[in-house]
Amino acid sequence: MPTPVSTARQCLTDEAARALDDAVTVARRRSHAQTTSLHAVSALLSLPSATLRDACARCRSCSYSPRLQFRALELSVGVSLDRLPTTKTAGGSDGGSGDEGPPVSNSLMAAIKRSQANQRRHPDSFHLMQMMQQQQHQTTSLLKVELKHFILSILDDPIVSRVFGEAGFRSYDIKLALLQPPPPSRIFSRLTPPVFLCNLEPVQKTGSRLDENCRRIVEVVTRKSKRNPLLMGMYAKTALKSFIECVESRKGGVLPCELNGLSVVSVEKEIGEFLREGGSGGKIFEDVGRLVEQCSGAGVVVCFGEIELFVGGNEEGVGFVVSQLTRLLGVHLGKVWLVGVAGTSEAYSKFLRLFPTVDKDWDLHLLTMTSATPFMEGLYPKSSLMGSFVPFGGFFSTPSELKNPVSCRNASSLTRCDTCNEKCEQEVADILRVGPATSASGYSTSLPWLQKVNVETDRGLDVAKTNEENSSLNGKILGLQRKWSDICQRLHQNRSLPEFDISRTRFQVPSLEGFQFGPGCSSKGPSHSEIQYSKISCMSIESQNAFPFKQILPVSVPFDTVSITDEADHIAKVSKSDMHSTWVSPSPKANLSLLDHTSSSSLTPVTTDLGLGTIYKSATHEPDTPKLSDHKKHLHNLPDSLSSDFNPKNECSSHQIARSSSCSGPNLEGNFETVDFKSLYHLLTEKVGWQDEAIYAINQTVSRCRSGAGKRSSGSHVRADIWLAFLGPDRLGKRKLASALAEILFGNKQSLITVDLSSQDKCYPSNSIFEFQDSYCHDVLMRKTVVDYIAWELSKKPHSVVFIDNVDQADFVVQNSLFQAIRTGKFSYSHGREISINNAIFIVTSSVFKGSGSLNLEEDPKMFQEERILEAKRCQMQLSLGDSSQDVSKRSGCTSVKVAQRKGTSKTTILNKRKLVESGDSAEKASCKTLKQVMEASRSYLDLNMPLEEVEEDNNYNDYETESIVENCGSWLNDLCDQVDEKVVFKPFNFDSLAEQIIKSIDIQFQKMFGSEFMLEIEYEVMTQILAAAWLSDKKKALEDWVEHVLGRSFAEAQQKYHFAPECVMKLVNCERIFLEDQSPGVCLPARINLN
Amino acid sequence: MGSSILDALNVRVEGTGDKYLVLAHGFGTDQSAWQRVLPYFTRHYSVILYDLVCAGSVNPDHFDYRRYTTLDAYVDDLLNILEALRVPRCAYVGHSISAMIGMLASIRRPELFSKLILIGASPRFLNDKDYHGGFEQGEIEQVFSAMEANYEAWVNGFAPLAVGADVPTAVREFSRTLFNMRPDISLFVSRTVFNSDLRGILGLVSVPCCIMQTARDMSVPETVAKYMKEHIGGKSTIQWLDTDGHLPHLSAPSYLARQLEIALSQ
């Protein structure tokens, strides 16, 4: 039953009723039988400043142009209206409703009713006016519907929302836009000023037409003191002009009431004339004075024009003007204002120099006028811009440049398959309720991996029940399940895994480990023996865990029954031993012996981070084995947590818990277990042979920490991160060791994250021989902060050695992060985010900081010092013939290869290094001594260089450390070093003895070619280059090869080419300008030596 | 009143130092632009961060078109903030428009500022006779009409240009904050900036200034930095930054932080 229009109108406020009338008109025009919501929409949209249109404009999607979208909407409404049946009979003249037009349809009426109800429910949302209306109409039970609510209800109509939908609007959005107030910029006649701008409000009240510059002038003028504005800046003149206009035009309510009747008089022209032409200046001011006296209003603003006029000469005249103006102010106190402009501050300061007290006398207030404001008038009604308005402010979250590792992990759990998860949970529940035997049968439908996991828990639960009767375990297992469900998710894709054999569910707890061996045994022969081994040794769970799960095998291989029985046996034993709580504390040695077997295993850096109960997967490194690693995680998780559950019951000390769990934790990590510590020692020594003590210390520390006895592991909280401080000299040695550690412990060299904190300000000079060594680019650090860089790299490869070179130069942020990391195991980076470092090895180095047990490095002066070597350049070398730079008496029987002094030094002191080929050790020592003596004799080297070194260092500090940081440098580094697991002090690399060796071998080559008559003089720079190359080279023989092949060949060529006179010496020099093009393999030295 | 402006402009005070340091962001960014620079200063300073009223992170209701037609309104805000926080004296680091604001503020209240560090600052962006500000009026009008026509497209084109250096994260960050600004406000503010001319009043700046100028700043030519150094009333130095672009605090934060440390300690 349609409602007559008049009835419907009674429910509406005037505004809404008008809208309804419009709708009725639309319906009548189209000769529709009823007035529907669509008509209402059409009517509402056709209103020029309609609320609905406005709301649409605000919520429209930004992918379309607004015009287009409105057009689409109109079209859509039109089409829908066209579809409605027209009834000729119902048109206009139908019965009583003839005047009113088509009656209101049920749906529209329902909308009105809805809006009524809605309005009743939300009285607080009423407009103030509406409230008042309500009070007036309290007696009438009929609630008048406001237009807004009317529109809202109409939008609820499904037909309407469909129409809007066709045009790309969502009625929900429109509703939201209706409810939210439109942006303020559209309301120009706003009632309330913005609340927070205190200094504005008086003016806001008084006038809104003032532009900002005028407003500020007025503000000054209304003040009690310093009330005479001097406008300064490029826009001062325009501002003054608009101010004068503003005062003169007396726009209604523009000026505050105190300034009512304010008038302005400009004497600028007069003053200008007076100053140029002279005459009676007094008349000007008399006129002004009279004007002020006549003034009935607030007073007179006297505009004296540009300061520039006053400083342009004619000082007498200016003095007169200034004094007259001062007088004017004094006489008509409070009724006269002065206003002037100064284009630049220069003019003003000149003026001040002429009249030092003028700013006091005139009570001037400087106002800077830096903006032109004429554009403002035209700007805000610009609606085209409003059209493109996108209300997105604050909507976008910061896209973090660093992938937040934490959130990544979370993400994985969030994205995990729901059903998987659900099943997991549900099955745990099943287990708890039903028990192992029956529950196992229920898994056939779920994912294979899931099954496995569940069965394992199941077993765990079984044991827990039988052995422990520990009710709290249930909860823990639930927790475990949840953890596993994460894994499950990842395994979700891998359905090719063998179905779990339910028959194996009988195994007892320790059998979990045995079971875990299953795949390993079945697919790999040798591992069987390993099982035997473990069986015999009756190792504790953790050592078994340390066992090579790594050797993971094609998973599709079905389990081997034989191995399973083996396991069963073994399991029985272990379980027995377990029951008697004979926990073999995992001494590193035992581990080692086990690990020996496994050194051949694949290098898959995968970790179960038990300390945190979080699982990492470094999938990037081994995309081919993800499920295997996951498998491992499954396997490892359970025993670990079980063991920690059991231990208290077995009345082991908490220490043991820590041990066991830590063992099963870190030891499983990556290929760590594949490395025997003894072999670690060997491997490291191979790389950096000269630092045996340091290597020993490193080795000790690593093994100690890995066994859970690290400094920061306490109680049940186990930390697997290792912190080392490499102190002392030998930069390269430290770096090499770090890289070797990365390679050995984590499987590849890419697991090294290197940051050189000193390189933030200075790079290696280009063409440095060490240039290549810096894996880490200066540019990156410019753009990222150090901590961000480290965190970013760590998030990519959590199993890494983080090598922070020159940590003593760490800035405050890095210091903080390091301290936090060492304390909490979380490395914080920008924006307070954190990343776990639980699998990383942090190495900080400092060559400045000596540590507490500072070893004396200043034993004796060295000919070749590390700093010099580090400066070595990669240059092409050249053999040339020349005069000896110092006459060296040739001795028969001993050839000489000598090293010339550095070019930079004042006098080329040649250190004649005599090498007796036939000399043995003793002779060598002797020569060493002579070398030393020569060194000491030629103090020039030391005198020139040693202090220089210090100066440089000081400079460095001054340059890039703020003082406070320098102050704290020592103490914070001390603190840091106190917390690291081990301070490893490095010995200085003995370049001199290396030099001797090299010289010896060069000598052999040289003599071979030239006999003992000639001398070879090697430039100091060349020697440092050779030494640096030797220091750098990984291969032991590389340098010898180079000497033999490259140098030897060159000697041969030289011999053919050059004719030697007895007084000549052969010189090996570098060609500074020629970069090293082809490099000798394995060593950073030229592949060929130029001859000239 | 005091607290309301602190709320409205999202004023934060970070750090524990007894000296105050204001980090004021420039056009198109908000205080988050300083997030990577901030940690370097929290130990030695109480760092005051705030959003300009035009920033996307501020409720657009607060942006009064009548009021913010000149930079002085922004100066009022800054001084009000410092007053509300009862800051007796502070060092001020201002970027782009905030550098202008800082200079103006220091003219009004020289005793309040111990040092101004002006990053990417320019007294006037438009060219003039004898002055190369980097922009012609015509170019600017084109920019404005581009902004009006399609703000998003303009942002996407402008952000990489402004950042200059090839640092995608910085571009992303700048685009985000720039896009957060309401287009009309953004346009309005840029008009304000381009209509401003501080050349006449540089001589009034008596606080020691350090002008930080990057190598290739599309908004500020190098001559501008020199011009400023010559004309600023107080002691002023130029620190040439070895990085590109108009937004070194986004594109090279740690480097900038270091330079700031040095400049502040001088």
UniProtKB/TrEMBL annotation, chain A:
Pfam families: AAA_2, AAA_lid_SMAX1, NBD_SMAX1. Residues 8-184 form the Clp R domain. Gene3D superfamilies: Clp, N-terminal domain, P-loop containing nucleotide triphosphate hydrolases. One of its GO terms (molecular function) is ATP hydrolysis activity. InterPro entries: AAA_lid_SMAX1, ATPase_AAA_core, Clp_N_dom_sf, Clp_R_N, NBD_SMAX1-like, P-loop_NTPase, SL_signaling_regulator. Belongs to the ClpA/ClpB family. This is Clp R domain-containing protein. It comes from Phaseolus vulgaris (Kidney bean).
UniProtKB/TrEMBL annotation, chain B:
Belongs to the AB hydrolase superfamily. GO terms for molecular function: hydrolase activity. The lineage of its organism: Eukaryota, Viridiplantae, Streptophyta, Embryophyta, Tracheophyta. It comes from the Eukaryota. Residues 21-257 form the AB hydrolase-1 domain. This is AB hydrolase-1 domain-containing protein. Coiled coil: none annotated. InterPro entries: AB_hydrolase_1 (IPR000073), AB_hydrolase_fold (IPR029058). Keywords: Hydrolase. The keyword Hydrolase applies.
